Amino acid sequence: MAETARRTDPLLSFRFEVTVDGIAVGAFSECGGLQHEVEFVDYAEGGLNTHVHKFPARGKQTPIRLKRGIADRVLWDWYAALLSGSTQRRNGAIRILDAAGSGVDAEWRFSRALPTKWTGPELNATQNQVAVESLELVHEGLERGR
Fold it and tell me: Domains in the chain, please, with CATH?
């Protein structure tokens, strides 16, 4: 069969997993902040009035935002340890799983992460919703695996 007949569909974003130090830390309903950008420095060369030179400086990451239904204390305990002065930097990964949920289609690895913000659930006795907690992680690197 000709190579042009082969089709690759975009990945679906609803089936993913988050691991920290190789351990699955729960099923998350949302994950955001997978963003990396390169900062640039302007250099105005004397006598050159048509443009300003742009030079790449350093990479900058945004915090990773995770949301899940409260199931255990794992995330809270990591955050509480930081509040009490125990710095536990951890590495992790966010993986998009295939349609069967058994293989990995894409992966982003983050390094030396620390929890920077924990948000507890919005409680309302008139609604029937899952209690959701969110955690933001700052990290020192994001790289694409698969």
Answer: 14-38+50-144 (2.30.110.20)
